[in-house]
Amino acid sequence: MRVLVTGFEPFNGEPYNPSEGVLALVQNLVEGPDTTITTAVLPVDAMRVARDLPQVLRSVQPEVYLALGLAPGRTTLSIERVGLNVLDFPMPDNGGNQPIDQPVMVGGPLAYATTLPIKAIVQACRALTLPLYVSNSAGTFLCNAALYLGLHWAHTDGLGGKVPRVGFIHIPYAMQYVPKVSNNPALPLDFMARVIAEAITVTVKTPTDIVSSAGSMT
Ligand code: PCA
């Protein structure tokens, strides 16, 4: 099984992005005789990610693509339900651009649903007391754009007829770096790696998602 896991470079003037830092830990936990993990770090730059990510996907041809990103302020890990065809940036990206109400992909559908078995993943994590919940919005910044671009690739190019499993996990700050001026929650990086590894393991062995309520009104 070919698995691609991506994180993002730091942004917003911060020195560290835990979604980049966690990649090596996830690779160590999941790689085995039947699973090869490729990792990549994506730029926090709308123009560059639209060019670079499809290239990585075409060259790796992953059967599973899990993207990771930092969600400042979220208390724990969340797995995204949907990628929206919307760029509406709350701040300039690392290229200095701040698109507002622009599409990720001109002419693309408004949204793509993740093709990961998110309910089975959340259930398996809960059984292990690993924290993960279903999020209904990946936002409108770079993380959502990567999810949308990944799903667009899966549905239009993909693996010749078989739609790859593509999805996104947002993670909170890690202990390595938390902005001093905030009271943002943070988790240990190796603990977050275990949740992410479980999500990949469940995806590999679960062809069809289970029917189970996400259990939230929002
Ligand atoms: N988080 C941002 C972009 C890069 C990252 O790690 C986001 O949630 O869109």
Q: Which ions and ligands are bound to the chains? A: pyroglutamic acid
Globular, elongated, flat, extended or rod-shaped: what is the shape?
globular
How many strand units? 10
* Helix/strand/pairing category: alpha/beta
What's the main sheet like?
Answer: 6 strands, mixed
CATH architecture: 3-Layer(aba) Sandwich
Tell me the span between the first and last alpha carbons: 34 Å
Explain this structure.
- This protein is α/β, with parallel strands linked by helices and 218 residues long.
- It contains six helices and ten strands; from the N terminus they run βααβαββββαβαβββα.
- It has a single domain (2-205), classed as Peptidase C15, pyroglutamyl peptidase I-like (Aminopeptidase), CATH 3.40.630.
- The mean pLDDT is 96.
- The chain binds pyroglutamic acid.
- Pyroglutamic acid binds at residues 8, 11, 17, 19, 44, 69-71, 139, 141-143.
- Pyroglutamic acid (PCA) is lined by residues 8, 11, 17, 19, 44, 69-71, 139, 141-143.
List keywords for this structure.
single chain; 6-stranded mixed beta sheet; 6 helices; globular; alpha/beta; 218 residues; 32% helix; binds pyroglutamic acid; two-stranded antiparallel ribbon; Aminopeptidase
Q: Can you lay out the helices and strands and say which pair or pack?
A:
Elements lengths: L1 E7 L9 H4 L1 H8 L5 E7 L3 H15 L3 E7 L6 E4 L1 E3 L26 E3 L4 H10 L4 E4 L6 H15 L8 E7 L1 E2 L11 E2 L1 H17 L13
This protein binds pyroglutamic acid.
